[in-house]
Amino acid sequence: TAITVGVGKAAKQGVLIKDAETLERLKDVNTLLVDKTGTLTVGKPKVTDAFWSEEITEEVKGAFLFAEKQSEHPIAKNIVSYLAEQGILASLSENIKTIPGKGISFDYNDKAFFAGKLDDEPLEDSFRHAFKTLQNKEATIVVLKAGDKTLGLLGLKDKVKNEAKKAVNNLLEAGIDVFMLTGDNEHTAKQVSDELHLSGYFSNLLPQDKAQIVEEFIAKGKTIAMAGDGINDAPALAKAHVGIAMSTGTDIAIESAEVTLLHGDISKISDAIRLSKQTVKTINQNLFWAFFYNVMAIPVAAGILYPINGFLLNPMIAGGAMAFSSVTVVLNSLRLRLKKA
Ligand code: ADP
Ligand code: MG
Q1: Is 73 in the pocket of ligand 1 (CB under 6 A)?
Q2: What is the pLDDT of residues 129-142, one digit of tens each?
């Protein structure tokens, strides 16, 4: 009964919990690992700066636009609207492929292109300055390349969710460490981490790295909740003791997680943990009272007082008392509904 009440109460608050076990396990969480884009940030990065090489044509930009249109990534959506605003028309690119955690590749006019994260290869001199500018702005940087040649650099800025700061504060106050896991670059990661006063962060991660970090924390004996929204978070969500998906995220993230937060409201995570503690406390109270009551009452019903004062319990009253013990347990569970959380 306590669990049913707990799951129902959580649902009312916008926390959808898949099973009873998860509600019980949430109380033990001492470390939250959290994705950046779409979980701590709004997930609608806007292009703020664009630097193009002199030789890029409108058609190539059009092919870039067309390729990004096929991508589900939040970055892609904004690049598409940015290019469209610039009056670029789509041109048919082919063989479009997503490279998880990195970006996309596509072919246009028999040439291979890549758009996504910068790798470790040095940039051409002509883009050094642009790169520094974007880095200083702590922007997420997307590079467009034809083979090894850089054709453009785009800088995107995302906003931290309004509720993120409070959410992180509540968790830290409750003694829960909060680490961010992101595929984004070091600079952007550090800025978000500093802004929210996180316990720490890991940047430049591939999806399998996120899952591996979850495993490492588990190996250290931590009880881990992982919160994320993307395809790249799904393996980590599945590995964590409790996976928490954003309802605003991808289906695969929601599938892989045991908890879904409506409206992607991460301030609900600490509420859910508190509710889990209350629920388990109620279960323990119920067990205590049920046992205590029976241990006292059964000997009385069996006539233990008879030699002392001649007291015998009427079987009808004993039957009623037995039922009453169940009623107290149910009432105590329903009390959970009235608790503020
Ligand atoms: P996060 O952990 O922040 O959700 P991802 O692992 O999804 O990030 O992506 C990591 C990086 O890969 C992004 O910051 C971006 O630079 C690049 N990237 C991913 N998909 C695309 C895309 N469709 N177009 C351009 N860049 C992309
Ligand atoms: Mg994300």
Answers
A1: yes
A2: 999 999 999 899 99
pLDDT at 284 over 70: yes
Q: What token pair was written down for 74?
A: 């939040």
Pairing of strands 200-202, 177-181: parallel
Ligand 1 center from residue 104 Cα (angstroms): 9
Query: What is the widest separation between alpha-carbon atoms in the chain?
Result: 106
Q: What is the pLDDT of residue 214?
A: 97
Question: Quick one: pLDDT at residue 251?
Answer: 92
Q: How many angstroms separate the alpha carbon of residue 6 from the centre of ligand 2? A: 28
Residue 295 CB partners (closer than 8 Å, separation 6+): none
- What crossing angle do the helices spanning 2-12 and 268-301 adopt, rounded to 10°? 160
pLDDT band at 341 (very low <50, low <70, confident <90, very high): low
* DSSP alpha helix (H) spans, the chain: 2-12, 20-25, 58-69, 74-85, 125-136, 164-173, 186-196, 207-219, 234-239, 251-256, 268-301, 306-309, 315-338
The token pair at 204 is 């430049």
Q: Is the CB of 117 under 6 A from ligand 1?
A: yes
- Summarize the confidence of residues 80-106 as an average pLDDT: 93
Q: Which of 124, 174, 190, 203 is nearest to 276 (CA)?
A: 174
146: part of which helix (H) or strand (E)? strand 140-146
Tell me, yes or no, if the pTM score tops 0.90: no
199-235 per-position pLDDT tens digit: 999 999 999 999 999 999 999 999 999 999 988 899 9
Name the pairing type of β-strands 15-17 and 200-202. Answer: unpaired
Residue carrying structure tokens 């939040």: 74
Q: How far apart are CA 297 and CA 7, in angstroms?
A: 33
Give the alpha-carbon dihedral of 78, 83, 87, 93, to 10 degrees.
-120
Place of tokens 């916008």: 14
Residue 287's alpha-carbon distances to 50, 215, 283, 291, in angstroms, are 64, 34, 6, 6
The answer, yes or no, to whether any atom of ligand 1 lies below 6 A from the CB of 266, is no
Could you tell me if 199 and 172 are in contact, meaning their C-beta atoms sit under 8 angstroms apart?
A: yes
- 340 pLDDT exceeds 80? no
pLDDT at residue 47, as a whole number: 95
